[in-house]
Amino acid sequence: MKPEIKRAVQKVDIKRWKKVHLEFGEGFLELSVPPDCVVLSMKDVPVLADPLSSIEAALSRPLSGPSIEDIIREKPQPASRVTVAVAVSDITRPVPYKGETGILLPLLKRLADAGVQKPNITLVVGTGTHRPSAPAEKMEMFGESVVREYRLLDHDCGDSGCMTYMGKTRKQTDVYVNTAFFSADVRIVTGLVESHFMAGVSGGRKAVCPALVDWRTIEKFHGPDFLESPGADNLILDGNPCHEEAVDVAKTIGVDFAVNVTLDKDMRLTGVFAGDLEASHTEAFRFMKAYTAIPLDRDFDIVLTHGGYSGRNHYQTAKAGCSAVPAVKSGGTVIIAADNRDQEPIGSTVYRDLSGRLKALGVDGYIKMITDPAWSFTKDQWEPEVWGRVLRKVGETGLVYCSPQIPPGEFSRLPGRSGHEFIEESEALSGREAARAMVQNALLYFFSRRLKKSGPPSTAVIREGPYGVPYRRKAS
């Protein structure tokens, strides 16, 4: 810790400060914050008292369209010969698949009761541009019995040999989709509907695009023409080019049935929405938007947030940074606590290289690079681009990233400042203790600087990190 940081940290009198808890991994960081610090939180919503009954009810009474049993029955071949592909999420999404109260076993039982044979069912993990799932991650997500008894495949967007060409969307995007999914007689998608910083919300059509398409299709979906649109943002569907394109791709391919879920702030099941691809997704979106949107009448000098479940690496934690943008003042400070527990705590080699270019070129220079006609699209280029949204608001020095799993030297090519700057290298701290010290001292440092310059700064904590969505109310 530099002497000027230590002096600033030690100047702040925190005797009257209050305690808050910031999520970190499976636990929390206890932090001292100013007495007037505002905790921004999602609304409370009832959790499902009997998840299994709710799942069964949703499957029995689909939202528009036929039931699973009717879909199987309407096929020309006997049920015992019908093939089924089920798109499932990877470890980056906390979809409640596993166990008796998860969505997967009831769905698979419906297929079995309808006469579909286990060898004819394939679960396709929709990795999109992510790495393949590790065996332990599949066990964690789906449970031992599913992993042992069913065929499980990881999608690979770079393997053109496992793709089928489907034609073009209305925006003239070439659609290549996973052959194992497309070739099945019945195609089912599953997913979690939560806020998403470019597609508006996840789930539904995203289980196909980008989850099961190849890099040529993703090039348009993750390209700057879409991402730089003001409509490509949290909780926006109307006029969102990413949403519109994903729906178009999914409809081009054809989906027979969808199962979407919503969760509360503690990752407990709040709703199950099954049936037609668009109808089930729209109902889930309306339901979750009512409790995840956080209206604001002002913005704040300093905002604390966290990476949440999805923030397993730096790549995924961009969601938390983007969600904080509406809550922070221009030139303010965003401090992120991130439990980057993934086997690749930053992301792929390509992502690390591109992040270094963002750091070196700045936001405008990076956008100029990836929009140059001579530039060749790379599948991870979009994530540094969305980190640029945070940098445009607070600048390079206004973003503090606190992750003990990322070595200090790596931050020379990551956006913002390292939380390691705010702890003593000689201190022998565990991961959680190190993260707490990083966040606490960063808050004290920026509080001290702003206090000296312009009086006590306004502060806020986003309790749910990337899942709560602050937005500014429109002036009347």
Please tell me about this protein's structure:
The chain has a six-stranded parallel β-sheet. Strands 6-5-4-9-12-13 form a six-stranded mixed β-sheet, with helices on both faces. A two-stranded antiparallel sheet has the order 1-2. It has 15 helices and 20 strands. α12 (about 315-325) packs parallel to α14. It has two domains: about 5-35 and about 295-470, Alpha-Beta Complex (2-enoyl-CoA Hydratase, Chain A, domain 1); about 50-290, Rossmann fold. The relative contact order is 0.15. By secondary structure, it is an alpha/beta fold. It has helices spanning about 5-10, 50-60, 70-75, 105-115, 135-140, 145-150, 180, 215-220, 225, 240-255, 275-290, 315-325, 350-370, 380-395, 430-455; strands at about 20-25, 25-35, 40, 85-90, 120-125, 150-155, 165-170, 175-180, 185-190, 195, 200, 255-265, 270-275, 295, 300-305, 330-335, 400, 415-420, 460, 470.
Keywords:
476 residues; alpha/beta; 2-enoyl-CoA Hydratase, Chain A, domain 1; Rossmann fold; 2 domains; 6-stranded parallel β-sheet; 15 helices; 20 strands
Overall morphology: globular
What portion of residues belong to β-strands?
15-25%
Number of helices: 15
Amount of helix: 25-40%
Secondary structure class reads alpha/beta
Tell me the count of domains.
Answer: 2
CATH class of the largest domain: Alpha Beta
Biggest sheet descriptor: 6 strands, parallel
Q: Which CATH architecture of the largest domain?
A: 3-Layer(aba) Sandwich
Regions with pLDDT < 50 over 5+ consecutive residues?
Answer: none
Strands of the biggest beta sheet: in what spatial order? Answer: 3-19-15-16-17-18
Rounded to the nearest angstrom, the radius of gyration is 23 Å
Distance between the termini: 47 Å
Round the mean pLDDT to the nearest integer and report it.
94
CATH topology of the largest domain: Rossmann fold
> What's the CATH H-level superfamily name of the largest domain?
LarA, N-terminal domain
Please state the oligomeric state of the protein chains shown: single chain
Tally of DSSP β-strands: 20
